[in-house]
Amino acid sequence: MEDNKNLEGQGQQNQEPNATTDEKEPTVEELMAQLAQERANSAKLQNDYNKASSEAANYRKQLKAKQTAEEQEEEAKREAEEEHKKYVKGLEDTIKMTNATNRYLALGMSGDMAKDTAQAELDGDMVKVTENMSKFKDASIKEAETEWLKSRPPVNAGQGEDEETDLFLKGFNG
After folding, report:
1. Which domain of life does the protein's organism represent (predicted)?
2. Angle between the 111-123 and 69-107 helix axes, to the nearest 10 degrees?
């Protein structure tokens, strides 16, 4: 009997390493079973979602049916007013953007920089507005310096040894 117990103990010891490798590496069948289970759960969740959506739609229809004509009219007016407010807000934003862009264009900024600066101003990003104004100022100064250098007459430096001597001065100097 003790021999049987020892054999069973050895058998259990031999099976344990196999059991750990089986746990670490699931078989293809186990993976397929897990995948099928996950797909079934996903399908169940999708069905539950569809059911909840259709119930919500039915409740909305029932609510509409129960509402009186006045309530329906009131709701329609409220929805129209919300749409109108969105439309007006969009127009106001467009006007603000156009005015800000025109202001920056009047300063002499390029079109892209003016739009970018105006958008930053409307978004409240004063760091970007300041950066763009600094870039514009630096570019304006550089352009003015270039124009000024072009408009200056050439510098006449030197003794003028190649030129004829002034006869008036030659008469005094001898």
Report:
1. Bacteria
2. 130
The tokens 């100064």 sit on which residue?
Answer: 141
Residue with tokens 């969009």: 90
What is the DSSP track for 36-83?
HHHHHHHHHHHHHHHHHHHHHHHHHHHHHHHS-HHHHHHHHHHHHHHH
Q: Residue 22: pLDDT above 50? A: no
pTM for the whole structure: 0.43
Higher-pLDDT residue of 133, 157: 133
C-alpha dihedral sign at 7, 8, 11, 12: negative
How far apart are alpha carbons 174 and 103 in whole angstroms? 68
Establish how many alpha carbons lie within 13 A of residue 49's alpha carbon, considering only the half-sphere containing its beta carbon. Answer: 6
CA distance readout (Å), 70 to 16, 56, 57, 66, 156: 77, 23, 22, 11, 92
Question: What pLDDT is stored for residue 115 in this prediction?
Answer: 93
Mean pLDDT of 100-105: 93
User: 24 vs 39, which has greater pLDDT?
Assistant: 39
